[in-house]
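[User]
Um, tokens okay?
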Amino acid sequence: MEKFLPLEHIEKLRTLITTAQNIVLTCHVSPDGDAIGAMLAMKNFLERKGKQVLAVVPNIYPDFLKWLPGACDICIYEKNEEVLLPKLTCADLFFFLDFNGLNRMSTLAEPVMENTNAVRVLVDHHLNPELNSCHLMFSYAEMSSTCELLYHLLVELEGEDNLTHDEAVCIYTGMMTDTGGFTYNSNRSSVYYIIAKLLEKGIDKDKIYRNVFYDYSADRFRLLGFMLYVKMDILPEYNAVLLSLTREEQKRFSHKKGDTEGFVNMPLQIRGTRLSIFLRENTEQDNIRVSLRSVDDFPCNQMAAEFFNGGGHLNASGGQLECSLDEALEIARKAVRKYAPLLRGNKIS
């Protein structure tokens, strides 16, 4: 496997880990499989080195990730600020995993950044990192996931043979979820080399897939049917689909964190569809969560930045809007009209 991480950065990281005693791992708000997988794999690795490690997420994460090894030790900052704040204050090393800007940490950003004595290390695969305050950055947008990047990082630090079964499970889960089961952003041969090496650790990839994608409630399936039959707005003239969901509709179907995971991908199965946009009223804050997915060369990240205060990857991006759902839908339609030439396979003039 080709080595691409600078040796001087690896050696600096090795020194930071060796000298640190209290290490905190953080990730972005509304953590997904890649964020949680990276945190838990890194936590296991550091604890094997005898370090005191705190894994803290800004808010709750989906139930379908709670089976991961070590997930029971993850702390949720929201509503536990008084307990966790002293632990953040005494940390001497922070790892920022799977995000590229402080705004992605929500209320966790302020207490983390107020600890000026701690060293901050970024490990991420998103474009255009805005964390200039980090002392060391491993930022590689060509990676399929942060977990893929973390695999390279751990191998450089310790070698392939020392990677544990639990670390392999967490890394595979992150890679799998961030590529939609290896259906996008996963054409490089090195992705499958890593999968092969993870399988050698004895992971059961079929069971991991079932744990993530085949473990939903009956209410979630009813919600999916409602979304596809009632709330899906197909725009055939633009090769695009809009999905939307109100707070009241979420309440009607007993929505839990993670229940709408993957919904935005489903319209891409419709013949000719190049773009899917999902707008959901946030149940935790007064805003609209936006998810975008595309196929081929349609730039979700460009649309997300221009219309939805967001960004991400070419075929998978997100953002948020501070407005009503009706206003958000109109913004989405405006975005689709603006990008009509690209959605039809032409260049925007």
